[in-house]
Specification:
Two copies of one chain form a homodimer. In chain A, 41% of the residues lie in helices and 15% in strands. By secondary structure, chain A is α/β, with parallel strands linked by helices.
Chain lengths: 301, 301
């Protein structure tokens, strides 16, 4: 249990929810709204500078519930030199992410493992071919993830960082994560010590899974993070922005929160929303709504 | 093994692929292109008339690889009288679908089980409330499906019709099917005799599933239908139309076809594509392309 939690986790603002705030503004916002924890993004940390970011969160007395994100480990599945170069570059970038997570004392580094080799997030499929193409070898892509983790887990372990494998909704399988279910993330994590590799439960991604409650129980102390946001219906044209404020979509949160708690998770509960309307709104109002909805629909009665 | 198949199934045109053809035109098209089998839709059968449809497919010597579709069994999860009425109406409509499948000697009646009670396909979420609302009770919706099947399976069995449970991609969980994985469909089927309830493997819906190959093997003789089409990326705004011609998306078909054959499936292989561009094209050209792609990317080398 982290210092300052109730043993049931406390609410954390993932800073992408208030995307237009700088890291300094998001830290101030957390303090102003009485939050004890924040989830950070590498882009925002880079803008603020790593040392300055560390200083800001420490002075504010905030915990860092996660750093988003490492991953994109599958490009090694491209043939020949292109694949080898991409794999080496991905490992190097992830080592930097681990270093940053260590500096920030983040509870975990969230890993979005990457999609089919050669398919870029949100972009049209490239022309298939040996150079500049993509591969449909899904099983192979999953093997690349396991290989990369074998390299990265000990590196993370030496720096006291936990890699948190995030299964993404199957809609993102082509371009963002060949890891689609909690069971699959859990199985992948088991090859490594628990302090090195865990899993993230993000309601948006897993709410539909018929094995969800069984797998949350099985995951137990491997649960390294719990993220909440709603699943909007219908999804907007850019499916990445289909995440909604809790209560605005189709998810029944309380049973999931209860299951995550029953599995032994005592960390923070992060709210991470990608949504054009929410980004356009006044961030202070967004945080006020977030706090109210957390009490109303996320926390068990 | 059906008469006239090679023991490896033969290519079947699901008539929604050539949506602008009437049933009579689709039957003619199959004959003209040398296809032995057709997948029918209830709407098209109704337009042509059931008796006339039966006559047309029989005179043409075509097998009916499936009738689409029964299902939408979850509305009984709405509270009170509204739920009871909806459940009774769904059962009645499904009995009519079973009668039609029997008349047409369809190899199976495809079942799209329905989404969250009160959420209409492709429409925005209704206001939550006791009347005219919807429910987020996903587990309850799944129980409603099991209850409805218990009513319908014996009725189907008496008429020699096999209900084929179709797991749909999780993107359709809110509004079309709370059945999201092959494992889940298979488990649901096991409560009933094999000749009454089976499962459909549709590549679009299950390609991403990390347990796919294991579950196809487990499904074995429960596999009542095999449908192929590609998964486009990115999906179009109306996600229902994200189905593409085989080879135009991200799916590696051959390993899946091989697994379905290895599981013992000897029925037809249906091509069912919902796609605005394909519907706008000349149906004869679509069928020609479909035959070529079936040989090139679907059938194992």
């Amino acid at each position: 249990m982290s210092e300052g939690t109730t043993g049931r986790g406390s609410l954390s603002l993932n800073q992408w929810t208030t995307r237009h705030w700088s890291l300094a503004e998001a830290v101030d916002g957390c303090v102003r709204h009485g939050l004890e924890s924040i989830g950070l993004w590498r882009e925002k940390v880079a803008e603020q500078g790593l040392a300055e970011s560390v200083k800001l969160v420490r002075s504010a007395g905030l915990r860092v519930s996660s750093l988003c994100r490492g991953g994109f480990l599958t490009a090694g599945g491209l043939p020949g030199e292109e694949g080898r170069t991409a794999f080496a570059r991905a490992l190097e970038d992830n080592r930097r992410a681990i270093d940053e997570a260590a500096e920030l004392a983040a509870a975990c580094l969230v890993m979005v493992v990457g999609g089919l080799p050669g398919v870029r997030p949100g972009e049209a499929l490239p022309t298939t071919g040996p150079a500049g193409g993509f591969t449909r070898d899904l099983a192979g892509a999953r093997e690349r993830v396991a290989e990369a983790l074998a390299e990265l887990a000990p590196y993370a372990g030496e720096r006291g960082v936990k890699l948190a494998l995030e299964p993404l909704h199957p809609i993102y399988c082509p371009d963002r994560a060949v890891l689609s279910t909690l069971a699959q993330a859990l199985e992948l994590s088991l090859a490594h010590p628990e302090e090195q590799v865990g899993v993230v439960v993000d309601t948006f991604h897993v709410w539909w899974d018929p094995r969800l409650f069984e797998d949350i129980a099985r995951a137990g102390s491997r649960i390294a993070g719990y993220q909440v946001c709603d699943y909007l219906h219908p999804l907007p044209e850019d499916v990445l922005l289909g995440r909604g404020m809790m209560g605005d979509g189709v998810i029944d949160f309380r049973p999931i929160t209860r299951a995550v708690q029953a599995a032994g998770y005592t960390g923070d509960v992060e709210v991470e929303i990608f949504n054009a309307d929410i980004w356009a709104a006044d961030p202070d109002e967004v945080v006020t709504t977030m706090k109210a909805r957390y009490e109303d629909v996320v926390l068990p009665a």
